[in-house]
Design brief:
elongated; five-stranded parallel beta sheet; alpha/beta; 387 residues; kinase activity; Glycerate_kinase_sf
């Protein structure tokens, strides 16, 4: 046995994120559970799929008991799409990628200059209509770089050109912005706790801003990046005239550059920025689930340097370690040293590529391979419950 085992009866908590392109977080938990039980049938397993604010955040909330609500909103190019948010009591979890994510673009189409966050604003409005007084706004996986202008417009703001017509959608159109009016914003926003949940702390513009760092992922050429950065800088200047110095202050605040600058728009709405995985663990009830287990299994598609900077497995491991629980991780690909894993609170990581070196097969057959990985975890870390 490779590691000190824990009693199967003490419980295992599977709190992993998705394997992007292969398995949802819910599917990861299902396959890990199946593999564990193949070796130790009596093991008590609790699944708590997690997310850090990006793709899969609503699904994680629904798996934890939230109600899924669907609404028709504008996609990033203006077409109508069906998007979802999650609701439990007066708390809503809204995922901007549901409306304005890259996955909402037609196959092979990228629109770095014209993609809009208008639908994300419509999702927030739907959450308000449903009676939410606390909104966790998960940002990530966006197709957009419009500084949240589309979102603000959907909530009642007006962005006009010199001739009084609305600016075109997308970040590129903000270069022609002459006048911003936020006085028409939905009044309900004043009495709502809005939490900006993200995993990046970039400012809005500059060398580490949204266009420079994330624009290329959305199809922006070097010229597009320059145009977007100039347009967003101008956007901030016009907003200063409308709302005062806080517009410039928010532009350099952590999280402003999240999801193409929608973080900046959320800060203008009064949002409080928090690490996505931290707030999601609170919302999902992670602390109470920890009390019912001795071993935590976390993970995501690739465990690498990015994992250590606010991604779900690092947040899960930190919280579990603080509670004195053992943590192991599963992943498709492992690019962290044992020392880095231990520093993050992860005793050991198990990669699908250890079972199947062919990466294409790992992606295509991720579920069955993950079950074999979970069997190894059971043999290494679990012992049958004492009778």
């Amino acid at each position: 046995m490779a590691d000190a085992a824990v009693d199967a009866g003490h419980g295992v908590l599977v709190a992993a994120d998705k394997f992007k392109g292969s398995l949802t977080a819910v599917e990861v938990a299902e396959h890990v559970t199946a593999g564990l039980r193949r070796v130790v049938p009596e093991v008590r397993v609790e699944a708590l799929p997690v997310a850090d604010g990006g793709d899969g955040t609503v699904d994680a909330a629904v798996a934890a008991g939230f109600e899924r609500r669907e609404v028709r909103v504008a996609g990033p190019l203006g077409e109508q799409v069906t998007a979802a948010f999650a609701l439990r009591g007066s708390t809503a979890v809204v995922e901007m990628a549901q409306a304005s994510g890259l996955r909402r673009l037609p196959a092979g189409v990228l629109a770095p200059l014209t993609a809009s966050t208008y639908g994300s604003g419509e999702l927030l409005r739907a959450a308000l209509d449903a009676g939410a007084t606390t909104i966790v706004f998960g940002v990530g996986g966006s197709a957009t770089t419009d500084g949240g202008a589309g979102m603000l417009a959907a909530l009642g703001a007006r962005f006009l050109t010199a001739d009084g017509t609305p600016v075109p959608p997308g970040g590129g159109g903000l270069g022609g912005l002459a006048h911003a009016d936020l006085s028409g914003l939905d009044a309900r926003l004043d009495s709502v706790e809005l939490i900006l949940a993200g995993d990046v702390d970039n400012p809005l513009t500059g060398p580490k801003g949204a266009p420079a760092v994330y624009g290329p992922q959305k199809g922006a050429s070097p010229d597009d990046v320059g145009r977007l950065d100039t347009a967003l800088t101008h956007y901030v200047t016009v907003l200063e005239e409308a709302v005062g110095p806080r517009a410039a202050r928010y532009a350099v605040s952590p999280g402003a550059g999240a999801a193409g600058g929608i973080g900046y728009g959320a800060l203008l709405l009064g949002a409080r920025f928090r690490a996505g995985i931290e707030i999601m663990l609170e919302v999902l009830g992670f602390a109470s689930a920890l009390q019912r287990c001795s071993l935590v299994i976390t993970g995501e598609g690739s465990l690498d340097e990015q994992t250590l900077h606010g991604k779900a497995p690092a947040g899960v491991a930190a919280a579990a370690r603080a509670a004195g629980r053992d943590v192991v991780a599963v992943c498709g690909r492992l690019a962290l040293t044992p020392q880095a894993l231990r520093g993050a609170g992860i005793r050991r990581a198990y990669a699908l590529t250890e079972e199947e070196p062919d990466v294409a097969r790992c992606i295509a057959e991720a579920g069955p391979i993950l079950e074999r990985v979970a069997e190894r975890i059971a043999r290494d870390f679990l012992r049958p419950e004492a009778s």
